[in-house]
Amino acid sequence: MNNKKIVIIDLEIGNVGSVKRAIHHFGYQTIVSNRHEDINSATHLILPGVGSFDEGMKKIHANRIKEILVEMVKIKNIPILGICLGMQLFATKGYENNKETNGLNIIPGLVKKLKNNTEFKLPHIGWNDVMFKKKNKIFKNILDNSDFYYIHSYEFICQDEVSIIGISNYYHNFTSVVNQNNIYGVQFHPEKSLEQGLQIIKNFLEIQYI
Amino acid sequence: MHKMENIHQIRYCKKCIIPETRPHTEIGEDGICSGCKYFDQRNNIDWDKRKSELQKIFNKYKNNNNNYDCIIPSSGGKDSTYQVLKVLEFGLKPLVITVTTDMLTPIGRKNIDNLKNKGIDCLEFSPNPVLRKKINKLTLSTVGDLTWTEEVAICCAVTRFSIKMGVPLIIWGENPENENGGPEQNSDFFDDIIQKHDDEWFETFRTNGLKSSDILDFWKKEGIKDIDLQPYTFPDKSEIQKNGTIGIFLGHYLPWDGHKNAEFSIKNGLTTYDKWVEGSIVNYENLDNYQMRVHDYFKFLKYGYDRVSDWSSLAIRRGRMSREEAVELSQTIGGKYPDTYLGKSLEEILDYVGLTKKEFDDVCYKFTNKKIFKKNSDGTLLHDNKGNLIKTNYDNIE
Amino acid sequence: MLKKRIIPTLLFKNNKLVKGINFNSWRTVGSIMQSVRIYKMRKVDELILLDISATNLNKKIDLDLINEVANECFMPLTFGGGVKTIEDISNILKSGADKVCINTASINNLKFIKEACKIFGSQAIVISVDYKKSEAIEIWSNSGQVKSDLVFEDYLKDLESIGVGEIILTSIDKDGTMEGYDIDTIIKVNKFLNIPIIASGGAGNFENMLDLLNSTNVSALAASSIYHFTNKTPLDIKKFLFTKKVPVRL
User: Fold this and answer.
1) Is A61 a catalytic residue?
2) What ipTM was estimated for this complex?
3) Which of 3.40.718.10, 3.30.40.10, 3.40.50.300, 3.20.20.70 is the CATH number of C5-243?
4) pLDDT (tens digit per residue) in C111-125
5) CA-to-CA distance for B129 and B127, rounded, in angstroms?
6) Is A158 tagged catalytic?
7) Does A22 contact C4 at a Cβ distance shorter than 8 Å?
8) How confident is the model over C56-91, as pLDDT tens digits?
9) Residue B2 and residue A20: Cβ atoms within 8 Å?
10) Where are the alpha helices (DSSP H) in chain C?
């Protein structure tokens, strides 16, 4: 419990308070930072985010954290959890606001607008169920088809199907949970999804990679 | 990340000492609270007219078919004793209904019997104490309310028996919105809606927002059924209407004064405590339930006022106490950690409720409105050398 | 699939929980934090908290309250009331709310809303539109005190085009009456609006809510009076809807 250093990466957009609270709920300490020395010494990284893809990447570049993030995650194998926009930033490229923006490229894929029509409006807001495609540590003690809270208009189209471990349906199926080794991403907001959401965070924090 | 402002000035009524933080109190631009304003308006009430309205109601509901004329909810306390004896003076035959408290004290039992011995029929109803304890522990830890079962059980039982026994008139005591400073419109409003005595009255007035279905859902995995929660479930509106059940506040028709009620009841055999009950400045209230001080303490933690503020404010309004004295009492007697009540230790009380002292302290902390209490330099709550919290201010800061 | 949300709205005035009828005759119904705790216990889908006196009294937004509420709840929180500037929105989000609800400040000021959507994202901006029906549908602001000259359909379409995430549509005529939602208007709006709508005003009985959800693709039902004055809880409503095959989270 005491040897974890949980760092919430501060992109200065959106509200990290709820994520902090969720972590405190389990008795862990956490810091919100975008400083290299903090990210460098983390045992767990969380990348939250609300906003647009290009804004998110702008903040990453502004704080010059792309390289260190990639290093921590790809070389040092530190567990990272991307939440909502945070998960989308893992992608190769994003196409929000009619711009093509390069992402972190730590899970190959593209971020594009969700399909929509008069029946299925955007943003996709509310509780939607996640269908587990694979058994995974992050789903421990959570029932398949549990509902989680979403609020987004874009989806992560994952290049490697093997990385898709959870999907949801809104007009069509879209990726809601990704995992590649130590890298986890959830499209929904676990910190806003009551006990099942908190369980996701707990499960993530219990993951250890050497 | 937002940092809580450390210093919050509590605003008090300039006349009494009720703070603005009290949920139903409004303090006007002139600095006077709604309770004081409403009390002043009582001078304009034509009490003779009100009394004759009461007589009309009594005439209407007097039963000539060998049944009771009315139902009076009663704890045997100073108000209930007054209510019952007053109603008897009007020549009515009441059915007194007592829903015994969770942790009935010997004084409480004595007073229930004292009232019975005045010559009345009394129906005593005790909800399943094993379940009740469980519910109390739940409501305390989730919503900081230890007496939900008490409020709700009295109300539901009384209404249910009104229907079952075909006695439509229920006579309550005081309109708390009137007495303790609810906004005036609430007071009149409550006088009106209690008459209907339907679910709107119950939901607005008695439940503090929590419903029996909440309890049912919370424990759905543990096999609790609807019938188990019947004591806390209000009867169906249609049954109430069919029976013609109505409720009235005696305090609407006769000028209400808790202190005078006590004097009256003491003359009529009410046993009081031998000194001021712990945490209050009277010896004649809340004598029947060991848990009451915990309940009051939570009011203090959440809103920064308690029985001391209530009683002294009532006394100020009636010219029986000065404001300076009230402020001092609120500081010397009010807001103290409830280590004993009616001689029983907190440990014993918590043992009954089913909490350890640590669990209790954690719950207290959870429901403390941190803004209104003094803090240490590190931001944690400040306690005096006896473990009591200290409010940021006990009177208005000019 | 996406579930229909059943959302309790908590209105407050001078820090007291209130409820009115047709935006009038406000009466105090309790304490904000107590209500929040009860909804927390109930694990509701979402919570909307509105300070209805803030704009008219030009009050400072109570960030401590938002912080306190957010600390209790691990469910989405929308906060509104007296929101006028970008800084207001930023402070509210930093204090712990997930979405900010704007009403009066949006009237005749789409530029502000557009900027807010750009800075904070569509997801964070909810516009509340209060209306009354007379010959045309009239939009009222300032907690129903000031009539605007905006054209109803045009205004809603403009909000959509500038990137607003969600609309709360409140019928002032129905509010507090518990006589049923204004289904006709909601159907009309849902046809031309491509962003999610939260219907508000008039929630009273289950059949009416079912009727609304069966008639049109509204995203959520907000309500207030029904939870204060009857024994119905959001879960009661959802249980009923579930038996009628409406997708809800139980």
Assistant:
1) no
2) 0.94
3) 3.20.20.70
4) 999 999 988 889 999
5) 6
6) no
7) no
8) 888 889 998 999 899 888 899 999 999 999 999 999
9) no
10) 32-42, 63-72, 86-95, 110-120, 152-161, 183-192, 206-215, 225-229, 234-243
